[in-house]
Amino acid sequence: MKTIIVGFDAFDPTLFEHLHNEGKLPNLSKYVDNGGYAPFAVPNPPQSEVSWTSISTGLNPGGHGIFDFVHRNPNTYVPNVSLLPTKTSAIGTQFIPPHNSQTLFEQAVRDGYPATSLWWPATFPARFESPVRTIPGLGAPDILGRLGVGILFTEDPESEVDKRKTEVKRLEKTGAGEYRGAFTGPSGKTLSGMKETTLEINLQITDSKTAKLVIGKQNIELEPGKWSTVVEVAFKIGFGMSVRGITRAMLISTEPAPKLYFLPLQIHPLHSSWRYGTPKGFIKDLWKNTGPFLTLGWPQDTSGLEENCITDEQFLGLCDQIREDRERALMHLLGKYKEGVLACVFDSLDRVQHMFWHDRPEVLEDWYVKLDGLLGRIENRIAEKNLKNTRILVVSDHGFKSFNHKIHLNRYLVDKGFITPFEKKEEGNLKDVDWGQSQAYGVGLNSLYLNLQGREGKGIVTEAQKPKLVDSISKKLLQWKGPDGNQVVQKVYTRDEVFDGPYTQYGPDLIVGYAPGYRASAETGLGEWKKDAVEPNKDHWGADHCMDADAVPGVLFSNQGLKNFPNPSYKDFPKLAIGKELSHKDSAIPPTYSEEDEEVLEERLKDLGYL
Ligand SMILES: [Zn+2]
Fold first, then answer.
1. Does any domain span residue 597?
2. Contacts of 19 (CB under 8 A, 6+ apart)
3. Which of 530, 549, 568 is where one domain is finished?
4. DSSP assignments along 338-373, one per residue
5. What distance in angstroms lies between residue 52's CA and the mean position of ligand 1's atoms?
6. β-strand 440-442 against 447-450: which pairing, if any?
7. Could you tell me how far CA 608 lies from the centroid of its own chain?
8. Which of 57, 184, 482, 575 is buried most deeply by CB count within 10 Å?
9. Are residues 374 and 284 in the same domain?
């Protein structure tokens, strides 16, 4: 068996077909001509972590247990990141794999073939027992165990109050053109207890074109406005131990005062205290032989762009760098490839579309052409090796649509009487809810839960009341019209309608399929609400896919044609990739609800690009 899977996160069929008709994507067009192209049905909700897991397992969320970026603990109503569940034991709090379902990669190994999964979402931490060579994708945390935000050093931190996510730090002048600052690292152990660690940085500005950054023993040349090479950081956490990480720096301005920006401090793959990837020798080979790469699950710094720390072009440069790093790794492995499954997910296009869908169509076109070129280079590499009968699959986890209005679902539920807050206030969150008088609530980007007796901590809705309530909420949501006169929600699904499998019982009761143009607000994701149920979206982040799955299909290309798969979906993918369906045990490990601090959970959530 020889299968190469190329994942193009968010590659959109409508945009593809348009550029195909204009003859701009020659490599992908060959597949269309040979009957090897089809739009690809994705699961509900069409979120990356859900969909990529469905693609690798053939299961919907009821089968694999990832229902939304954000889940909640039914007992406490506290939201958490589905991608980063933790378990607390005698040895402390540890990350545990976000799902346990069998993947096509594991089945390939079981069948006697090597399998490699590069940057596939929801694969951090690596499974102990897994024989799959893995570098994790979306979901891999920074060195603080968060999803990661950039750090801005400036002489005047007070002037940066508009920064909602970015960590702002003071840069202190120590001499002519010389400045000092310090990162805050993980907590370290001292004899007197836990203490925050720091790491000093020094900046020396020679003139408007050259500067030097000194961190520990490293001297890094900085060219204003350009990303540095990968910088290593190390925090001494006590008793001779240190936590090591990586980042890239950029001097974003020198005049009138310097501003120095860093990408989130990310896991050093060779020195991680968590199981970053597997096996160690594999990670080492890639790191040493194909050069350093960013390790954060969401390395394209959308927050830095959203908060004006970096420019469009600096953001796009970073996206391209990430594409290039992954391409180098994939090409290196293709050079050694003989058989088995080799998969690599490229996700910069998703971030580019989130930020530029609206006003920079030329950037989008550029990226479709870029990925088409990448596929051409992969095909050439395979042809060079004379690997006959190699199956090539190109797949995306969803398409894309405009995101013009933010929906505060919980405000709507308050207005319609499904949520009763203790006090009438303009804004609120789930802590303000009188659960004794509330029937339903939203947490996550597409999830709606009933306040069910026996499941929710203060549940009041009985099983007998459930059908009528579900019906009433669904009807109201479907009647809801936005300011443009269009339907806000195009479909509402009940849990049993779209999910099957052992995890179904843990999923949301209703899945809200927003119509194109509408998406849940960041506040909704966290269970909060604002004054109005609909708010115009004025963010740089102007397009999305967390809508109804029917509105945002993905794409599928196969060099061996799709004759037997006229309407392919994620359910077909394992069969397409390894020639057989996966068998899944019909039992589920109950979800783990973290016992971590609410504050820790909240911090982790806020770093998610979507929130
Ligand atoms: Zn995606």
1. no
2. 25, 365, 368, 369
3. 549
4. -SEEEEEEE-HHHHHHHHHTTT-HHHHHHHHHHHHH
5. 8
6. antiparallel
7. 7
8. 57
9. yes
The DSSP H or E segment spanning 120 is strand 115-120
Rounded to the nearest angstrom, the distance between the alpha carbon of 217 and the centre of ligand 1 is 39
Structural domain that includes position 278 = 2-146+267-400+552-578
Measured in Å, residue 55 CA sits from the centre of ligand 1 at: 12
pLDDT digits (tens, 9 = 90+) for 384-442: 998 889 999 999 999 999 999 999 999 999 999 999 999 999 999 999 999 999 999 99
Q: What is the DSSP letter of 124?
A: P
Please return the burial class of 177, using the count of CB atoms within 10 Å of its CB with bins 0-12, 13-18 and 19+. middle
Encode pLDDT of 262-312 as tens digits: 999 999 999 998 999 999 999 999 999 998 999 999 999 999 999 999 999
Is the pLDDT at 190 greater than 70? The verdict is no
Ligand 1 mean position to 46 CA, how many Å? 8
Residue the block writes with tokens 């406005």: 225
The model's pLDDT over 113-129, given as tens digits with 9 standing for 90+, comes to 999 999 999 999 998 77
- One domain for residues 472 and 517: yes
Which of 245, 262, 279 is a domain's end point? 262
The kind and range of the H/E element at 451 are none
Whole-number Å distance, alpha carbon 50 to ligand 1 midpoint, is: 9
Question: For residue 587, is pLDDT > 80?
Answer: no
CA distances to 136, 189, 310, 519 from 97, rounded to whole Å, are 11, 27, 33, 28
Residue 430 sits in a domain of what CATH number?
A: 3.30.1360
Instruction: Say if residue 463 is in the same domain as residue 372.
Output: no
How many residues are present in the chain?
611
Answer yes or no: do 420 and 499 share one domain: yes
The answer on 158 and 78 residing in a single domain is no
How far does the centroid of ligand 1 lie from the alpha carbon of residue 321, in Å?
19
Q: Please give the distance, rounded to the nearest whole angstrom, from the Cα atom of residue 421 to the centre of ligand 1.
A: 35
As a whole number of Å, the end-to-end CA separation of the chain is: 41
